Structure formats: structure tokens, C-alpha cells
Structure to design on (266 residues):
């Protein structure tokens, strides 16, 4: 009878668009309703499904049709379980798309569907960009002039829990980037040189000597080291100005006079 559950869902959706399936959908819903109260289905809906599918299989292979007919209950349980597992996973990927902009935030490159995807959206571009050719700009950040930003930029913070400079910079970084939620993608990465991950490749590319902390903004702006020498307020303004620049001034803080002045210097 578990096949009634799947049928109720599928046929209920089909019934919205076609009157052909509405009568069958009502039978399926009736079956599910009776199952919920521990009563057998009156319509024999599951038997109808078994007979209908078996008849279709008989035209192709009598042996397979026989196996299906004899094991219908087991197969219906397996089918129902797989249906709800796939539905749950689909809901999970839709949630990731809405929140993170990719169906797989851990390994974005594995996501087949990324609406409006571009190199800046799911990974931080670095191939072909030379940090050595960068020029100094505000807040001790470096600007790679050949880098371009399209769409939603990825903002990286590389550090460790034991580094005091990282401990100073991290809360400021998180506070500022949180204001740009929905306009940027933020990734805080704990340094582990031994791990052959994309994040470690990016870290090594921008921090050739392995120094921390490192902030990389859309592959275009980066800084090795903290902003302690600037002071907390100036550091916040610098980060805000750069994020305003790369995300096209999406928040009210981008209109602040000090932030605007810094942004104009980029």
C-alpha cells in the first residue's frame, strides 16, 4: 500500500494540470487516508497499479513482468523510500541555491546547475593572475589590475585559530561581510597546507611565503597580514569600501563619506 503514498503525491500534481488524472488521484488520496487510520484501501488501488504495470511489462518481457508481479510489495516499498530520499535531497539543493547560490556549497564545482554562474560566483579566480604584478591600494591591500569581477564575488579569509593576528582580524571581517549578505559569497578557511584542496591552492597562490591571515576579495584585491596597524574603525571602513566597490554599492554604508572617499581611491 505504500505505493499509494507516492501515487497520491505524483497524481495530485498531475491532476492540477489534467482532469485525466484527478479521478485516479482521488483514489490514491483515499487509500492514503485509510492507511493513516490503519484501515485497508477500499478501491484496490495498489492492485490496479500492479496489474497495469504488469500488463505493460508483459508486452516487453514476460519473465520480468512475473518477477514484478510477485515482488510488487517489496518493490513498492523500495520505490517509495527512494522517492522521499530524492525529494529530500532536492529540497536540500534548492535550499543551498537560495542561500549560497550553488547547489553544493562544499564542492561548488560538482553542481551542474548554477543560475547565472560565472568564475567569480563559485570559486575565487586566481589562475592567470599574478600577485607579483599587483599594485598597492588602500589599507595595505594589493590590486591585481588585470582581474575582473562579474556577478557575485567570493570573499576569502584564510587563517588559523592559534594565530593572534587572525584572531584580531576575523571578527572584523565577519562583521563587515555579514552586512553584504546576498551580494557576496564569504568563505572562512582554516589553513591546512597538507590538504590538496582548491582553497589551499588559492591560499598558496596569494600568500607565496605562507603568511597569515590572508584576505582575498574576488581575486582582484588581496592582503597578506592583518589590519591591526590601521585600527579597528579604519579597518572596517577599508573592508567596507572594497566590498562596496566589488558589489556595486548595494548597502547604505557605501554612502558613508569616509567609506566613499576610500572607495574612490581604489
Amino acid at each position: 500500500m505504500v505505493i499509494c503514498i507516492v501515487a497520491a503525491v505524483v497524481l495530485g500534481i498531475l491532476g492540477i494540470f489534467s482532469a485525466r488524472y484527478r479521478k485516479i488521484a482521488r483514489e490514491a488520496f483515499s487509500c492514503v487516508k485509510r492507511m493513516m487510520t490503519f484501515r485497508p484501501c477500499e478501491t484496490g488501488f495498489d492492485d490496479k497499479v500492479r496489474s497495469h504495470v504488469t500488463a505493460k511489462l508483459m508486452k516487453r518481457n514476460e519473465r520480468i513482468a512475473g518477477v514484478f508481479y510477485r515482488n510488487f510489495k517489496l518493490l513498492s516499498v523500495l520505490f517509495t523510500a527512494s522517492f522521499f530520499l530524492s525529494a529530500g535531497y532536492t529540497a536540500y539543493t534548492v535550499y543551498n541555491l537560495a542561500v549560497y547560490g550553488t547547489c553544493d556549497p562544499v564542492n561548488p564545482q560538482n553542481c551542474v546547475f548554477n543560475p547565472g554562474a560565472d568564475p567569480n560566483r563559485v570559486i575565487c579566480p586566481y589562475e592567470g593572475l599574478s600577485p607579483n604584478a599587483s599594485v598597492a591600494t588602500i589599507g595595505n591591500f594589493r590590486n591585481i589590475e588585470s582581474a575582473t569581477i562579474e556577478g557575485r564575488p567570493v570573499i576569502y579569509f584564510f587563517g588559523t585559530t592559534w594565530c593572534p593576528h587572525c584572531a584580531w582580524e576575523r571578527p572584523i571581517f565577519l562583521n563587515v561581510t555579514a552586512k553584504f549578505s546576498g551580494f557576496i559569497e564569504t568563505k572562512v578557511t582554516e589553513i591546512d597546507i597538507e590538504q590538496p584542496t582548491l582553497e589551499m591552492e588559492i591560499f598558496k597562490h596569494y600568500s607565496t611565503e605562507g603568511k597569515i591571515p590572508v584576505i582575498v576579495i574576488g581575486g582582484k584585491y588581496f592582503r597578506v597580514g592583518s589590519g591591526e596597524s590601521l585600527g579597528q574603525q579604519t579597518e572596517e571602513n577599508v573592508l567596507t569600501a572594497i566590498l562596496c566597490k566589488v558589489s556595486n554599492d548595494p548597502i547604505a554604508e557605501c554612502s558613508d563619506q569616509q567609506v566613499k572617499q576610500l572607495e574612490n581611491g581604489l
User: Anything to note?
Assistant: The chain has two domains: 3-100, 119-264. The domain at 119-264 is CATH 3.40.30 (Glutaredoxin). Residues 227 and 235 are 6 Å apart (CA to CA). The two ends are 66 Å apart (CA to CA).
